Amino acid sequence: MSGYRGRFAPSPTGLLHAGSLVAALASWLDARAHGGRWLVRIEDVDLPRCPPGAADEILRQLAACGLVSDEPVLRQSERGTVYQAALDRLIEQGWAYPCGCTRKDIAQALAARGDPRERHGELVYPGSCRPSNGGLKGRLARAWRFDIAAVATALGLPSITHWNDRRLGAQQQEVAMEVGDFVLRRADGLWAYQLAVVVDDAEQGITDVVRGEDLADNSARQILLQQALGYPRPRYLHTPLVCGANGEKLSKQNGAAAVDLSDPLAALNAAAALLGLAQQGGSVMQALDCWTRQWATLYNSAP
């Protein structure tokens, strides 16, 4: 058994759709091709958006496809104290600060300086409440943000974060300019995805993150958090997206239907095709075994 540890981390705001099955299959195959362990983590940190029973149904969907976690399933909704401890560490270092800005405040601040930047539907945070800019200035604290400049100065980090993706190749992002100081704890008190995923990956000893290409853009922010918290950096592989008839990626937000598992092998074959794997007959377990060998060759990941 190698030291490889991978994971699939669905958000139970709905059931698995065809796109999420692709990510689940890819992460499972990568773990098996490396002779490693595959974990399932339920990312239900945003509980108000998670229908009752959805997480358990996702686990049943995965099991129907022969994809079963090698260790007990972790649920983010039960880990608030762990995330708070990580945030407290950043606060003590002076690397996180309270923010009182609403979305309207951010839009107005950007417009005032003639820079109304919007990125993937999100406004690039201008640093209005950053301590070096005078802090809250009388606003009530609503959220907590990561102070990119303070971390970069303290740790001697370059302005541009570089990393390699096993499928997409060399990647880079200047987070301070393209995203701004990002949220760690939201105004509604819920934990932000970026902090929760970084803490959980580190605590679970995840060595390889295999997930959908729509999440690739998060990598630089997560790498900065890993550096600030002293965590190791996992390897990354982002899988192709499944798109609907309108050309948009399938997602729970745009009403993607739950994957049809009346014939699990057919559903897995459809997912495998998107990953460049040959179609298989026989049983689900036989197909998974064949795809594991193909995956090891395709991604040069034999143990």
Structure description:
The chain is an alpha/beta fold and 303 residues long. It folds into two domains: 5-78 and 202-299, HUPs (Rossmann fold, 3-Layer(aba) Sandwich); 80-185, Glutamyl-tRNA Synthetase, Domain 3 (Glutamyl-tRNA Synthetase, domain 3, Alpha-Beta Complex), CATH 3.90.800.10. The chain has helices at residues 18-33, 54-64, 80-93, 103-112, 148-155, 175-178, 193-203, 219-229, 264-274, 284-298, and strands spanning 5-8, 37-42, 74-75, 96-99, 118-119, 122-123, 143-146, 161-165, 169-173, 183-185, 208-212, 235-239. β8 (161-165) and β9 (169-173) form a beta hairpin. L-glutamate binds at residues 7-11, 43, 193, 211. Belongs to the class-I aminoacyl-tRNA synthetase family. GluQ subfamily. Zn(2+) binds at residues 99, 101, 125, 129.
List its salient traits.
Rossmann fold; 303 residues; three-stranded antiparallel sheet; 2 domains; alpha/beta; three-stranded parallel sheet; Glutamyl-tRNA Synthetase, domain 3; ligase; elongated; Glu/Gln-tRNA-synth; zinc
